[in-house]
Design goal:
mainly alpha, Cytochrome p450-Terp, domain 2, three-stranded antiparallel beta sheet, 3 strands, binds coenzyme A
Length: about 375
């Protein structure tokens, strides 16, 4: 007999085949296309890892330069998309603004409805190139400033920091942002990637799937957690108050953002690098307050609940140290993850079968019809 009972939250369900990333939750292992994420975070850049994900091979120096050059030439947004951003209320939630702009980008993409692999690759490139420009332009427009044109001489992360602030970032800052995107790049069938794949499985186009992924990433149980983690650190306030803060939150059955994971039962390998970068940025700025506070909170959570921090916890401190506004933390996650979503969309389009699970029906059956005048 077939078992029709539902798995709450689809926990433990294998819903697709994928050759993109491998996660061993018990061992705390993550690899992209067979390359350990620790090696990539130490030695590779974000776009190098995107190339690996999309082409299933590490690029040669010439291939990488060509790839980076193509994307650098595609950062400028069409004027109509900038106009969409100008038309939004200044108080728009940034993830909502981002999904609106990405959807608008799809309206003017010359290959919007073409879902061939070649067109998918080209659209994925344009999206990865354009996404940082959207976030930077939105942030300037809402502050009453003019968007800054991308600088093709700067690399992907340095250019974002420049377009947002108008100032050239130092190498540690640009490297930290680049590595955070590398760590956010791809992570199996998480909620947003699954969403993007479901949309792609209907043979809808790349922009439709990426817009859907953005919608799923927005929530605090997923991408929104890095913002909530920073708000929580600010709320906890100081080393002296953090223990009381954690105990009160746990007693009130509140979740501590940036802790726990559906797949990892040990340290999230991405957190290892973000912790290191949070410390490095703090030391460079001569202010390790948020790093120190995070370390104590991390120890408390392990002791009280046996929970490890996830990717979003130290990312909060890293982005805060880069003086980025807290409500841009989730859009920054999205910038990194877009290339991962795109890789899944391409995988789905190439080996498609409509994703259509079933629900376990828990309602009544065989209720007698009652005419409207007798209800
Ligand atoms: C990531 C997350 C959604 C995974 O959820 P899940 O697999 O459905 O696990 P649950 O929410 O059912 O949690 C299992 C238990 O651990 C507890 N728990 C999990 N994460 C917790 C957290 N961050 N703080 C406090 N308790 C937590 C739950 O309260 C629950 O305890 P209980 O069995 O006594 O009720 C969850 O850990 C969470 O909400 N974390 C905070 C948000 C976050 O950081 N998200 C980013 C993920 S990368």
């Amino acid at each position: 007999m077939t078992d029709h009972s539902a798995s709450r939250g689809l926990a433990g369900i294998v819903a697709a085949e994928s050759a993109l990333s491998f996660i061993d939750g018990a061992a705390g292992r993550l690899s992209y296309r067979g390359y350990d994420v620790h090696a990539l975070a130490r030695h590779a850049g974000y776009l190098e890892s995107v190339y690996l994900l999309w082409y299933d091979a590490l690029p040669s120096a010439i291939e990488l330069a060509a790839f980076e050059g193509t994307l650098a030439g595609q950062r400028q947004l069409p004027e109509s998309v900038i106009d969409v951003l100008r038309g939004l209320p200044a108080e728009s939630q940034p993830m909502a603004a981002l999904r609106t702009a990405v959807s608008a980008l799809g309206q003017v993409d010359p290959e919007a409805e073409d879902i061939s692999h070649e067109a998918d690759l080209r659209k994925a490139g344009r999206l990865v190139a354009g996404m940082p420009t959207i976030v930077a332009a939105f942030d300037r427009i809402r502050r009453g400033l003019e968007p800054i044109d991308p600088d093709p001489a700067l690399d992907h992360a340095a250019n974002f920091l420049y377009m947002r602030s108008g100032e050239r970032a130092g190498p540690t800052a640009a490297r930290a942002l680049d590595t955070s995107w590398l760590l956010y790049l791809e992570h199996g069938l998480n909620a947003s990637t699954f969403t993007a794949r479901v949309v792609a499985s209907t043979l809808a186009d790349m922009h439709a799937a990426i817009t859907a992924g953005l919608c799923a990433l927005k929530g605090p149980l997923h991408g929104g957690a890095n913002e909530k983690a920073m708000e929580m650190l600010l709320d906890a306030g100081s080393l002296e108050k953090v223990e009381e803060f954690v105990d009160r939150a746990l007693a009130e059955k509140r979740k501590i953002m940036g802790f726990g994971h559906r797949v990892y039962q040990t340290e999230d390998p991405r957190a290892t690098h973000l912790r290191r970068m949070a410390e490095e940025l703090g030391r460079e700025a001569g202010n390790t307050k948020w790093y120190d506070l995070s370390r104590v909170l991390e120890d408390l959570m392990l002791e009280r609940k046996g929970l490890y921090c996830n990717v979003d916890f130290y990312c909060a401190t890293v982005y805060y140290s880069l003086e980025l506004p807290i409500d841009l933390f989730t859009p920054l996650f999205a910038i990194g993850r877009t290339a991962g979503w795109a890789a899944h969309v391409m995988e789905q389009h190439m080996h498609n079968r409509l994703i259509r699970p079933r629900a376990e029906y828990t309602g009544e059956l065989d209720r007698p019809w009652v005419p409207i005048d007798r209800r």
